[in-house]
Amino acid sequence: MAETLFKFYSEDDEPEQPESQDEHCWRVLVIDDEDDIHEITRLVLSSFEFDNKPLKFINAYSGEEAKTYFEQHNDIAVALVDVVMETNNAGLELIKHVRNVQQNTFTRLILRTGQPGEAPEESVIRDFDINDYKNKTELTSIKLKSLMYSALRGYRDLCTIKYQNKSLERLISVTAHFVECDTLHQFAEVLLAQTAHVLTVEPDTVYCCAATNTVYEEADNYEILALSGEEPCPDQQCKTRIPAPIKQALEDAHNSKQSIHHHDYFVGYYTSSNNIEHLLYVSKQSPLERHEHRLLELFANNIAIAYERIRLREISRESQKELSYILGEAVEKRSKETGSHVKRVALFSHLLAIKYGLSEYEAEVIKLASPLHDVGKIGIPDRILNKTSQLDDAEWEIMKTHAQLGYEILRKSKNDIIKVGAIIAHQHHEKWDGTGYPNQLKELEISIEGRISALADVFDALASSRCYKPPWPTEKVIEFLKQNSGKHFEPKLVNILLNNLDAFLAIRDEYPDEDE
User: Fold this and answer.
1) Which of 71, 114, 109 is nearest to 92 (CA)?
2) What is the pLDDT along the chain (516 residues), one digit of tens a residue?
3) For the stretch 330-342, what's the b/e string if a residue is b when 16 or more beta carbons lie within 10 angstroms of its beta carbon?
4) Domain 335-510, what fold?
5) Euclidean distance between CA atoms 288 and 204, whole angstroms
6) CA of 149: how far to CAs of 103, 227, 446, in Å?
7) What is the DSSP annotation of 97-142?
8) Domain definitions of the chain by residue range
């Protein structure tokens, strides 16, 4: 099982808030030009609560004053609007402004009038986007409270729908971040960065533990991905830092084989098709709401699927890398050379690609493909391949065919790494000045993969022992590279190698030939 305990950090943007900015009360705007109406409304609803939150009254005595308040605040749950104020239709004009100009469709607008003749009920309800129409004389204490329950319930549900829509948008955005991950390390970092964002809370208020485990194994049989924002932990000591309650919650979900919805925490449980279970523990400083549990349930499923895909991608990449090295080493063994050459060329190529300005993905592909540069030598006779003396002209022409042979072997593959391997096999003996083989390509006619692998291969070959020569001293290799900059090799690549010579020599020293 892989498990992570996080103290979250987030992206640069501030967490979004639900439509109601004040989580501890419902804002009610009373709009009327009579003081008595304000006082009576406050008196009747003074002890009113909905969803365990009281009302907070704001008073406006004209349509213009109310309009200003609406423009400055977006968290008004209910507005009780008088029709006749500074003008006979001030309330109706305010309603049109709120709905049509401000595009506020959330606030529940309730029209109250003491002069129904000024605003006939049927035509007002038909022509204006209001949520209710009441004659002041019929609004008893009970009816006013019933009206408030109905209005706040509608406002709450609209806010919930909007919040859930935004949450789903964030979830989709977060899922895209997971798709971009290439490694499990990156996956852990994205999980750290995005969980607080999904819940729209501050990063340091959220704790999370992500885990995977084979269904048939014990609940505590896991390894660590990351812990509280630290680097991935390679050993099992990290497990001792996870609080006991979190371990117990994971074990409960493992044993019950289902998600756990607790008011203080959430444990999502998801099983993939290959009998791997995924667990996501999340808690924050405040209780988790119902909609947060639903969102986390979706989030847990999504990250479990993402984890499986990234894990399979890593397995596939490692398999390709291993097969590439094995094939490259097999060719070297046949030519009585050591397998360390392909490893060094791969690492030299990766470093050159990064310093040249290629992306990490492009550099990684070149690294994995470069061990295939000499695969065409499997078609070269042993008497030529392992000849200790200088090749004659006929033998040299046969030796040069290995570039075309390697290309023919690899070119039909649809795999990105093998396709790049075909290019490298074909072009790693081309020269910057056009005097190379097999096609006498010149300068940028040679692909960047070919230009990089050419320098990496020659640099390592000169500094290593071969059946036809001893290794060159470093000073002689450097002099050769300088003399052949602009001839055999691209000058920019030679400068990169020489300016970072210590890094290249460190790679050479880390992977010595087997007989050294």
Assistant:
1) 109
2) 333 322 222 334 433 443 444 568 999 999 999 999 999 999 999 999 998 899 999 999 999 999 999 988 889 999 999 988 999 889 999 999 999 999 999 999 999 887 765 567 777 878 888 989 888 888 889 999 999 999 999 999 888 888 777 766 666 666 666 666 666 666 766 766 677 767 776 666 677 666 677 655 665 666 555 554 455 554 455 556 677 888 888 888 888 888 899 988 888 887 876 667 777 788 888 888 887 888 788 777 777 777 777 776 776 666 666 666 666 666 665 555 555 788 899 999 999 999 999 998 899 889 988 888 888 888 888 888 878 788 899 999 999 999 999 899 888 887 788 889 999 999 999 999 999 999 999 999 999 999 999 999 999 988 876 655 678 899 999 999 999 999 999 999 999 999 999 999 999 888 887 654
3) ebbeebebbbbbb
4) Hypothetical protein af1432 (1.10.3210)
5) 16
6) 24, 46, 75
7) IIIIIS---SSEEEEEES-GGGS-HHHHHHHS--SEEEEGGG--HH
8) 2-13+162-312, 26-139, 335-510
* Active site (annotated) includes residue 377: yes
pTM of the model: 0.49
Omega prior to 232 cis, within 30 of 0: no
Q: Does residue 336 come out as left (phi exceeding 0), alpha (psi in the -120 to 50 range) or beta?
A: left
What CA–CA distance (Å, rounded) separates 176 from 114? 56
The Cβ-side half-sphere exposure at 4, using a 13 Å CA radius, reads: 26
Tokens of 163: 């919040």
Q: Which two tokens stand for residue 364?
A: 């990684």
171/411 Cα distance (integer angstroms): 41
**450 conformational bin, left if phi > 0, alpha if psi -120 to 50, beta if neither:** alpha
26-139 sits in which CATH class?
A: alpha beta
Out of 321, 377, 482, 487, the active site residue is: 377
Short-list 131, 45, 32, 147, CA closest to 85: 32
Q: Which CATH architecture has domain 2-13+162-312?
A: 2-Layer Sandwich (3.30)
